Amino acid sequence: MNERRRHSRVALEAPVTFVAAGDQAVFRGTARDISFGGIFFQARHVLPLGTELVVTITLPDSVDEISLPGVVRWQRPDGMGVEFALLGERETRVLGDFVDSASS
Q: What distance in Å separates the CA atoms of residue 26 and residue 100, rounded to the nearest whole number?
């Protein structure tokens, strides 16, 4: 299989909530891996490809809840892969700290 990812993924198991842009319905899922570029999480409710959304997560060993904007890039019956949009400074720091510590 040809790997197209630019960022290494880190496995994790953490609860997430997500909301599609322009919607108020909040859904829940479980993150399975994350990188600087995106996240995969399992969920009962899978959004259509191309849907803009915000994923909210508290990473393991962190007290900071972060909200990560993104777009659904792929899906399967039990979950979806989300590519992150532009992240803020705080979100980048929290995500970077987690990825760096989990990779070492």
A: 30
